[in-house]
């Protein structure tokens, strides 16, 4: 029962949070032994920690510690499904622990957290979010209807622009912000979706006209979600860096998208520096498949570290400047929580666990998404 994962323990009502300081170097099992041993006999047998764990009233005791200069410090987390008074008694009993092995120790209760209060707050926040999305969806449906009707009266035809006679919308010269796509069919499809200020590269090599436009205008590169789009992105990053980048869904092309998909993709554009690593993810995923290893990438696409998957959460907590994580394992809620705290933008794993809530600011993909 002691090994029961507290994250899956559904009956928890409170969590006792405490800190400890020990004059010496000890291990986790020493601290747990001291807690069980020194609280034993203080109360009737059915109220001792071991019995409470067996009955499921106390969950798995989680201990984190570190040692330095012949001193060990850390935290103890005890999940409880007892009532408030009983939980407070257990907390007070923990503070009586004054030795761990041969070393003097002091345990201090930091707080007793009511898990249900936090859950209620999350429920309320999620309910507000659902209401906002509901209202936005109804408003959006009306806007789409009006937009589709109005587009029937706006049959704008593409023109040729620049010495390479690139396909573009007629307003390309006047627009300060423009969208760069791969080919003529993409320009035509964006026009059908009511999007102007668009120009096509018309090939993998970047034309001089595009190089000049990037210097003078704010350019968003809107590329296909395939290998060709990956190659063009790499080319742009070397010779004509756009300010923003967005992609069609993986395996799709810009010319295939409907108006809703076009506008959704454009709304998700990100600064170029935030996607400097994305071109490497597919190859890296193939390299890591079957290795049970993980790689952390920085904003410039460089590898920060490579190590076994079992160390991923701890390494991510301790490493600065990580923009992407690629690993041969399962994307879990715990990993995404840490990634969100550390400002990670992309997480790629062998697969994504069912029911995981994905933060809006993190792009999550499985290996098969990048195949």
Descriptive account of the structure:
The structure is a single chain. The protein is an alpha/beta fold and 371 residues long. The chain has 3 domains: 11-113, 2-Layer Sandwich (Alpha-Beta Plaits); 159-274, Dna Topoisomerase Vi A Subunit, Chain: A, domain 2; 278-370, 3-Layer(aba) Sandwich (Cytidine Deaminase, domain 2). 36% of the residues lie in helices and 27% in strands. The protein is built from 11 helices and 17 strands. The strands form 4 sheets. Strands 2-3-1-5-4 form a 5-stranded antiparallel β-sheet. A 5-stranded mixed β-sheet has the order 9-8-10-11-12, sandwiched between helices. A hairpin with a 4-residue loop joins strand 6 and strand 7. Helix 10 (312-318) packs parallel to helix 11 (333-341). The longest helix is centred in the middle third of the chain and has 37 residues, at 115-151. It is elongated and about 90 Å long. The model is unreliable at 1-9 (pLDDT under 50).
Outline the fold blueprint:
Layout: E1 14-22, H1 28-39, H2 49-54, E2 62-68, E3 71-80, H3 84-94, E4 99-100, E5 103-114, H4 115-151, E6 159-161, E7 166-168, E8 177-181, H5 184-192, E9 198-200, H6 208-216, E10 218-223, H7 227-239, E11 244-247, H8 259-267, E12 270-271, H9 278-288, E13 293-298, E14 303-308, H10 312-318, E15 322-331, H11 333-341, E16 346-352, E17 363-366
Parallel strand pairs: 8-9, 8-10, 10-11, 15-16, 16-17
Antiparallel strand pairs: 1-3, 1-5, 2-3, 4-5, 6-7, 11-12, 13-14, 13-15
Quick recap:
With 371 residues, the protein is an alpha/beta fold. The protein is 36% helix and 27% strand. The longest helix is centred in the middle third of the chain and has 37 residues, at 115-151.
């Amino acid at each position: 029962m002691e090994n029961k994962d507290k994250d899956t323990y559904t009956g928890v009502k409170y969590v006792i949070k405490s800190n400890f300081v020990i004059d010496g170097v000890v291990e986790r099992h020493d601290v747990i032994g001291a807690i069980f041993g020194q609280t034993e006999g203080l109360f009737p047998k059915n109220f001792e920690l071991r019995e409470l764990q067996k009955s499921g009233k106390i969950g798995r005791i989680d201990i984190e510690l570190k040692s330095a200069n012949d001193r060990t410090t850390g935290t103890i987390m005890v999940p409880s499904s007892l009532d408030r008074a009983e939980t407070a008694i257990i907390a007070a009993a923990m503070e009586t622990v004054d030795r761990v092995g041969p070393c003097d120790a002091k345990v201090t209760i930091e707080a007793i957290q009511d898990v249900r209060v936090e859950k209620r707050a999350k429920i309320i926040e999620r309910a507000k979010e659902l209401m906002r999305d509901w209202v936005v969806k109804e408003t959006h449906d009306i806007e789409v209807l009006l937009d589709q009707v109005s587009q029937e009266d706006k049959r704008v035809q593409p023109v040729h622009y620049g010495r390479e006679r690139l396909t573009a919308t007629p307003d390309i010269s006047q627009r300060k912000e423009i969208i760069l796509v791969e080919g003529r069919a993409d320009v035509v499809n964006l026009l059908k979706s009511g999007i102007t200020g668009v120009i096509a590269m018309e090939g993998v090599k970047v034309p001089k006209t595009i190089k000049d436009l990037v210097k003078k205008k704010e350019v968003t590169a809107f590329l296909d979600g395939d290998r060709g789009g990956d190659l063009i992105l790499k080319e742009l990053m070397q010779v004509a860096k756009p300010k923003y980048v967005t992609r069609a869904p993986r395996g799709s092309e810009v010319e295939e998208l409907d108006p809703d998909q076009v506008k959704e993709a454009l709304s998700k554009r990100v600064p170029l520096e935030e996607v400097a690593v994305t071109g490497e993810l597919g190859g890296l995923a193939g390299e890591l498949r079957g290795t049970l290893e993980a790689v952390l990438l920085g904003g410039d696409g460089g590898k920060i570290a490579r190590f076994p998957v079992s160390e991923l959460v701890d390494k991510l907590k301790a490493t600065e400047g990580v923009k992407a994580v690629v690993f041969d394992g399962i994307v879990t809620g715990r990993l995404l929580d840490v990634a969100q705290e550390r400002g990670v933008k992309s997480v790629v794993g062998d697969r994504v666990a069912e029911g995981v809530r994905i933060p809006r600011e993190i792009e999550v993909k499985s290996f098969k998404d990048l195949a």
